[in-house]
Write a structure and sequence with these properties.
It contains three helices and no strands. With about 80 residues, it is mainly alpha-helical. Helix 1 runs antiparallel to helix 2.
Length: about 80
């Protein structure tokens, strides 16, 4: 595990343990985040090459209507086993 991966793992572990949504103290959470960010000069994933690629969206031309039609067609098919 590289130093960057270890820093990211520590950051994520802190957030999982102290986040207010899971019962952590909001003030302690904010203070802890500030401390971690000062130590690391920002979030550990900020300079990661993992997020360099452009985001691509794939559009399904049939959308919801196509899914409903496929479901309906499958329901109306005769059984494959006789």
């Amino acid at each position: 595990m590289t130093e960057e991966e270890a820093a990211r793992a520590a950051y994520r572990a802190f957030v999982r343990e102290h986040h207010p949504d899971v019962g952590g103290d909001p003030d302690e959470f904010i203070a802890g985040l500030e401390k971690l960010r000062r130590q690391q000069d920002g979030p550990p994933w900020e300079d990661s090459p993992r997020f360099d690629a452009p985001v691509t969206f794939v559009v399904n031309p049939k959308g919801v209507v196509g899914r409903v039609r496929r479901w309906r067609d499958r329901r109306r098919r005769p059984p494959r086993v006789q």
